[in-house]
Amino acid sequence: MTESKRLLLIDGNSVAFRAFFALYTALNSMTNADGLHTNAIFGFNRMLDIMLEDVKPTDALVAFDAGKVTFRTKKYADYKGGRSKTPPELSEQMPVIRQLLAARGIKSYELKNYEADDIIGTMAKQAETAGYETTIFTGDRDLTQLTSDKTSVAVSKKGVTEVETYTPEHVEEKLGVRPDQIIEIKGLQGDTSDNYPGVTGVGPKTAVSLIQKYGTIDGVYENMDKITAKKMKEHLIEDKDSAFQSRDLATIRRDAPIEIKLSDLTYKGDQQDELVKFYQEMNFQSYLNKMNTDAGDEDVLGLKPVEFTVLTADNLNELAQFKDHVSFYLEMPDANYHTSTFAGFVIGEGDKWFVSRDVELLKQAPVKDLLTSDKVQKDVFDLKRTYVGLNRLGIHLSNVDFDLLLASYLLDTNENSNDLGRLAFQHGYHQIQSDEEVYGKGAKRAIPDDDQLFFEHLTRKGITIESLKKSLFKQLDENEQTKLYRDLELPMAYVLAHMEIAGIMVDTDRLSAMQSEFTELLAQTQQTIFQEAGEEFNIGSPKQLQHILFEKLGLTPIKKTKTGYSTSVDVLEKLAAEAPIVENILKYRQISKIQSTYVEGLLKVVHSTDQKVHTRYLQTLTQTGRLSSVDPNLQNIPIRTEEGRRIRQAFIPSHKGWQIFSSDYSQIELRVLAHITHDKNLQEAFKEGDDIHASTARRIFHLGPDAEIDPNMRRQAKAVNFGIVYGISDFGLSQNIGITRKQARQFIDTYFEEYPGVKQYMTDIVASAKDKGYVETIAHRRRYLPDINARNFNQRSFAERTAMNTPIQGSAADIIKIAMIKMEDAIKDLQATMLLQVHDELIFEAPAEEIPTLEKLVPSVMDSAVKLEIPLKVESHYGNTWYEAK
DNA sequence: CTTTTCACG
DNA sequence: ACGTACGTGAAAAGC
């Protein structure tokens, strides 16, 4: 060998398929002048770039499937039967992908009666003989059977850029068998997506263990006398033909009658003229100028130049030109905008953009007037962040019309990002880079020193906000989400900003006292555990704990995790009777959790300036419309155990003589369920003011109206009610309350008989989700469920449960948000301040003399937030600390 | 950077 | 037969 040859073999259909779905959300925004969809072509090209860069091939081939009929379908008519057909939006792109390949100097090939796999298998074999290094690129894991010393298989995982590369060692590590044994596994377990059966009752686990033992399917049948499991043996005998046939179907051919030779595969590289023409036809601006041609005036990344003016004290007055409208972006490099430094800002409209690193300028009249004006509309990215940032500079942002981040979140909770550039890309706008690309990531992330670079990026942010406004508003309108945006989420951003800025006072002395107390307790418990274990070890390490419990002390493992035996609470509780050490470990875990996460964690984030914690509510994160809380998370402060609950003693009012006041919705999710299902029986219980879990117990256990409900029945009924809200499964319920799956099934069946409206709703909502692809809340909040029609049972089941749960959890989130907006207005003349929201609960601080007013006012605002078919119920508590407000 | 565990609704 | 409850965030360990 004089020079090394590197061959790149690409599975054209499977990669195109991956590219299409990776950019599925961009489907409608990516079309060329002729209306041709281009997302798969674009994605394919991106993936191609990555592979070419990675492999630097001397030779390359893209193999395509020749059509539906192959030698496999001739042998087995149902092969790949039942597959939903390729979407027309993808089919139309397939021939164009071949044009792309031609322009990029790569040969494509297909062969009648054979699949792309077989072409690749055959070519890879020839290449091996000829001493080539081969890389196969595909979206299909089945091709990993072709790995060898000379051949690796790169499988695209998710998105366009993520790839997992398989070598024989990696295959063995991941699957537990050698590459050549993959077909044996497939023969036994079959393949649902290719639609061949294998052996009944044999799934991946069984198949792998059989092949590990006997090497091949032939080996299995030669050793039938050693197989003791009766049912499995019967199935193996029964399905013997099927096993061999399935293996045959799974086997990629390495001797397909291909008419091309290795020497035909030379990678010629980009055909400049042809490729320019192609990119122009596809409207691929970014690629066009990556090629460094003069076909446009963009830079290497395909970005058109932008113009900006650096704002100074001398040209401030130019801002007076903006009379009706500006886009504004305030750059704060750290995620936490309560403490972040300020890096700069951009403000402007159309082709007039002003930028600066000096945020002090914002305090000057012309800029400040613009931002606070009720006449000039502002468009931003992340209103709450911008509001809090400006508030720190003494500027009260007002009259925001468009928030790109918020609007985008409402349109699709799945495809959302806090990165303006990345989010813009998802909406089909490419004239900006992501922050990650410009600023870097991880430890290297930094605002560039280069003014030109930084200011251009800022300017593009302003332009991006302006450019996407119209289209996103239009989409909100089409989704009937304008009201949700304008009357709910946009006002919500201000309310949350006010709450975050207010913060809640922390009694650090109290926390410090608890810290010493827990340190002592932990030390004691630790010593006891070491004695019981007979050695010292790190109790906080699951790995070391496993060793002590299951190896040294010989306790029985109950549950496995990916890496070993589980030591979680439910496991330890079952083991508690076997050894006293277990109880102590549970105690240690509980205290050390409270100590590290709450006592020490909270002390770390108290602002030294005001002795308060200022959380950030993430308004655009959850899939259901709930808020989440970070830095610190104030939505998971302990309450269920007394030791933990004491943390709440450290949350106190910020003024002397004030109280903490809290109101929570009682059973809001079940009430929402009663409302949206219209179930008569469930509604009746709420209208009568019954104890809902007792009422459910009465029904599912068929008890008379006067019968006593014992606590255990009520507990079980409560679990059933929870299960219903979560999208019930018999397994889940059985696990939760420790009954058999059969009993759980019985409970569920009875529940549905007693509450037929609920049953009907569950059926309908799943059907509707399958039909429309999304579910909605009462305020038209939307959640798309791409997996609702998945062939994979687990993915599909998960999506179905989500379809049942999201309208309930999400509508409850809508309700409390509406209440919060009304609340801010209702208490505006009081000194009382709203501080926290914990999903179904609002927490305030107020002077003691206002408590009687709040006791009437707050519940009335909350229970009248929306009109449902059943009443809402609110309970209130107050005290000197959050702990006492119970 | 991922995994495990555990805190909340 | 599959392998699960729904929605979150933080800490620590161990790669």
Automatic annotation (TrEMBL):
Domain DNA-directed DNA polymerase family A palm: 644-850
CDD domains: DNA_pol_A_pol_I_C (cd08637), DNA_polA_I_Bacillus_like_exo (cd06140), H3TH_53EXO (cd09898), PIN_53EXO (cd09859)
GO MF annotations, alphabetized: 3'-5' exonuclease activity; 5'-3' exonuclease activity; DNA binding; DNA-directed DNA polymerase activity
InterPro entries: 3'-5'_exonuclease_dom (IPR002562), 5-3_exonucl_a-hlix_arch_N (IPR020046), 5-3_exonuclease (IPR002421), 5-3_exonuclease_C_sf (IPR036279), DNA-dir_DNA_pol_A_CS (IPR019760), DNA-dir_DNA_pol_A_palm_dom (IPR001098), DNA/RNA_pol_sf (IPR043502), DNA_polI_exonuclease (IPR054690)
3'-5' exonuclease domain: residues covered: 307-477
EC number: 2.7.7.7
Root EC class: transferase
Ranges for domain 5'-3' exonuclease: 5-268
Pfam families: 5_3_exonuc (PF01367), 5_3_exonuc_N (PF02739), DNA_pol_A (PF00476), DNA_polI_exo1 (PF22619)
GO-annotated biological processes: DNA-templated DNA replication; double-strand break repair
Reactions mediated catalytically: DNA(n) + a 2'-deoxyribonucleoside 5'-triphosphate = DNA(n+1) + diphosphate
Family statement drawn from the similarity comment of this UniProt entry: Belongs to the DNA polymerase type-A family.
Self-association and partners: Single-chain monomer with multiple functions.
Name of this chain's protein: DNA polymerase I
